[in-house]
């Protein structure tokens, strides 16, 4: 049975249109970067809960989630309406296995996200472990419009800290801008643009790929990776890519 804790909203960030982040305090158990929590509100006598990955690294006291407001959704419009000082329910224990301790060793790590799935990678990247384990890390983020790119200051800080070891590749599918590749992840992968702009080869010998986001992207890119001779990673059968449908 889940143990629920009371949390307090500290800050809300409205990035664009229906894109938000919530920062809150709650005495949750220690968690591993890459895991998710569950947030809830009591609505019409029922506790309505949904999973959200932590954006903050485990060492931060202030907790953070990143989400889209879904029109007529059961919870997200109410989360979007919260303000500092409001209360929220949070599960005491985080869950999930989309964590670095589950991955085999490789030279390069590719982190591929659509939309708000970016957040789970920012939690991982702000810990020491990825920089101890991998020579180079490539973060790929696909959104429809430039205004949906978020956490630019965090990404800039990572670039300043790790230099050539870190590559950030934004991809925008529905408008053309100078700062990003245009199109979808699959096309950029198959056309060679990802590897060209990353300055790194995506191969079974040197790379592990983490895929997090919508199921369409995960299916397409998984198939493209399999066509390169890569296989899905399993605990009993080590592979080359790991997937998680974003909540």
From TrEMBL:
Keywords: FAD, Flavoprotein, NADP, Nucleotide-binding, Oxidoreductase
Domain FAD-binding FR-type: 2-101
A Gene Ontology molecular function term of the record: nucleotide binding
Required co-factors: FAD
Enzyme Commission code(s) on record: 1.18.1.2
Pfam family, any one: FAD_binding_6
A GO biological process held by the record: cellular response to oxidative stress
Catalytic reaction list: 2 reduced [2Fe-2S]-[ferredoxin] + NADP(+) + H(+) = 2 oxidized [2Fe-2S]-[ferredoxin] + NADPH
Region feature (Disordered): 228-247
Cited CDD domains: FNR1 (cd06195)
Signal peptide: none
InterPro entries reported in the protein's UniProt record: Cbr1-like_FAD-bd_dom, FAD-bd_FR_type, FNR_bac, FNR_nucleotide-bd, FNR_type-1, OxRdtase_FAD/NAD-bd, Riboflavin_synthase-like_b-brl
Keyword Mitochondrion: no
Biased composition (Basic and acidic residues): 238-247
The keyword Oxidoreductase is assigned to this record: yes
PROSITE patterns: FAD_FR (PS51384)
Stated family: Belongs to the ferredoxin--NADP reductase type 1 family.
Protein name in UniProt: ferredoxin--NADP(+) reductase
